[in-house]
Amino acid sequence: MRPVLLSGALHYFRVLPEQWPHRLAMLRAMGLDTVETYLAWNLHEPERGRFVLGGRADVGRFLDLAADAGLDAIVRPGPYICAEWDNGGLPSWLLADRSARLRCHDRAYLGHVARYFDAVLPAVVERQRTRGGNVVMVQVENEYGAYGTDRRYLEWVRDALRERGVDVPLRTSDPPTDYVLAGGVVPGVAAAVNFGHDPETAFATLARYRPDDPPMCMEFWDGWFDHWGERHSTRDAADAANVLERILATGASVNLYMAHGGTNFGTTAGANLGGDESTGAYQPTVTSYDYNAPIDERGAPTAKFHAFREVLAKYQARAIPEPEAMPPVLPAGTVRLDETLRLLDVPPAKVAEAVVPPTFEELGLHHGLVLYRTRVPGPRGAHDLHLDGLADRAHVYIDGALAAVLERSGETSAPVGVPGGSATLEILVESMGRVNYGPGLGDRKGLVGGVRHARQFLHGWTAATYPVDDISHLPWGRRDRAGRGPVFHRGVLDVGEPRDGYLALPDWTKGYAWVNGFCLGRYWDRGPQRTLYVPWPLLRRGANELVVLELDGVADPVAEIRTTPDLGAHRFRRTRCRTVRS
Ligand code: GLA
Q1: Residue 517: pLDDT over 80
Q2: How many domains does the chain have?
Q3: Which of 450, 467, 484 is the last residue of a domain?
Q4: Do 104 and 38 share a domain, yes or no?
Q5: Secondary structure (H, E, C), 221-278
Q6: In terms of domains, do 285 and 418 share one?
Q7: With a 6 A CB cut-off, is 82 part of the ligand 1 pocket?
Q8: In sequence order, what are the residues at sequence separation of 6 or more whose Cβ sits closer than 8 angstroms to the Cβ of residue 249?
Q9: Beta-galactosidase 1-like first all-beta domain location, by residue (predicted)?
Q10: How confident is the model at residue 580 (pLDDT cuts 50, 70, 90)?
């Protein structure tokens, strides 16, 4: 039996548009005939009612380029997508609306979803196979059964897609676990399963629920992602190729998750909560989404690519093109970032006053930093200062002096005293990714549970926001003053020919890096990721601006360009994947 779809995941939102044609060509060269992408709601509607469908968000163009590359497409519009993407793709502004209940048949939430679907689905609908295009399948929600049991909601999403003109086959997708499938399948929609191993059992489980559905693995997890502070995950190529072969031998369709992972640029990375029920310690996801996929972060074929190509060739009726030769990378070098600017000398984007500390979402801040300030009346002894619900990391200053650095899922309290009449308490909070999976979805940022000194809540705050997405307004050239808080550093990267490169910040601690104003993402000396991918389209011949915002301090502000990536010390995992117990 010939499998129906040989598909691979490639998210347009994790690759720069200039590189879409190359990555799509690499999928074809691996032996695939279909590309699968989610749609990222928070990319398309960054502010309520403001829709973006051009540039990096031009999914229509991505689908057309896929067609040009000889690829059909599976589209997974969510609205929830998981994907290690901030908030599972749900816009953070949704969390400011405390009345909206996520991922269920809730009027406020569905109203937002309806507007989003109205805006993005036309680009998909007009490209369906039924209208002469290349879109051959659309997914309903994402692993819904791993989250809830609201059948009415799933039916609403199914009907919302159909009402807007989606008429190609629909699928749900869930891990092959009884309680998950019980919550995830929906009448009138074929089901698919997601797994990393044991395809025979997975398809047998699926058949118990849906004996008539053509078998499909919507996510074959051929690699895995990484969290800050953990080891780098890899999966052995031969092991993954063996499972791929067994999937295809059953006659099932497959979608490789991922064919090419790409990068969580800027502040787009999500996070997990640990433990079997995804309710434990906070685990922010790293910037790279290399995923140990067959096509690596810069688009180069790996050993897994060649192993998969051999397997796919047995099932692919069409001729498989050779992969293009990869161009060279930037030469190794160093850049001094001598110019400095204190973050707290930059005018904040917004200042608000409130009796309790407002969340980032209430302040209209997607990600970045917020300086919360209050007066603590004294005198008082050294009691513990508690940042309840801290999300995610805070520098605490008493009268301008650093008193503690606190962290979610770490220490969130520190002893603080006010010997005199009163003191100024400032708490600079940095957000990391929003949880994208499980019961922790809807992860608000800031001082979410308020601030207590011993048992006493501290009231009366001002909050100043410092976004990190756009740094074009930074007032460089100010005379540097001594002071507190994070520091921007700036230097010039001289480039001959624009090429891919890898940015390393060996002496630095934690922060954000930008090339010519584009935020590459977060870095952290905790690892495992040690280098940030710098894609060639960001560079120009000659002088390029390199900016780093260092949160904790650097002795020698030197950045390195390296010729190879360093994603950290790895460990092979035969099957690191969702632990969903029966
Ligand atoms: C699930 C989700 C995906 C992704 C993978 C892990 O299968 O559906 O979006 O989060 O897990 O990478």
Answers
A1: yes
A2: 3
A3: 467
A4: yes
A5: ECCCCCECCCCEEECCHHHHHHHHHHHHHCCCEEEEEEEECCECCCCCECEEECCCCC
A6: no
A7: yes
A8: none
A9: 357-464
A10: very low
pLDDT tens per residue, range 85-125:
999 999 999 999 888 999 999 999 999 999 999 999 999 99
Rounded-to-integer distance, Cα 146 and Cα 166, Å: 25
**What is the pLDDT, as a whole number, of residue 569?**
83
Rounded Cα gap, residues 84 and 453, in angstroms: 35
Say if 580 falls within a structural domain: no
- Predicted confidence (pLDDT) at residue 400 exceeds the cutoff of 80: yes
pLDDT at 555 > cutoff 80: yes
Ligand 1 contact, 84 CB (< 6 A): yes
Catalytic residue among 36, 84, 141, 143: 143
Domain check: are 235 and 120 in the same one?
yes
Q: Of 45, 84, 219, 297, which one is the catalytic site residue?
A: 219
Indicate if the pLDDT at residue 315 is higher than 80.
Answer: yes
55 in the same domain as 147 = yes
Domain termination site, one of 289, 323, 357: 323
The set of residues, in sequence order, having a beta carbon less than 8 Å from that of 448 and lying 6+ positions away, is 359, 388, 389, 390, 391
Q: List the CATH number of the domain containing 248.
A: 3.20.20.80
Question: Which residue's C-alpha comes closest to atom 10 of ligand 1?
Answer: 83
Based on the fold, state whether residues 308 and 251 are members of the same structural domain: yes
Token representation of residue 171: 């699928």
Distance CA 497, CA 331 (A): 10
The residue among 430, 434, 109, 457 whose CA lies nearest residue 269 is 434
With the most atoms of ligand 1 within 8 angstroms of its CB, the residue from 11, 180, 257, 434 to mutate is 257
Model confidence pLDDT, tens digit, residues 141-160: 999 999 999 999 999 999 99
Containing structural domain, residue 498: 333-341+476-562
Task: Give the pLDDT confidence of 163-190 residue by residue, as tens digits.
Answer: 999 999 999 999 999 999 999 999 999 9
Query: Does residue 285's CB lie within 6 angstroms of at least one atom of ligand 1?
Result: no
- For the segment 257-285, the average pLDDT, to the nearest whole number, is 98
pTM of the model: 0.97
Same domain, 482 and 428: no
Whose Cα sits closest to atom 9 in ligand 1? 83
Is 424 within the bounds of a domain? yes
- The rounded Å distance from CA 32 to ligand 1 centre is 20
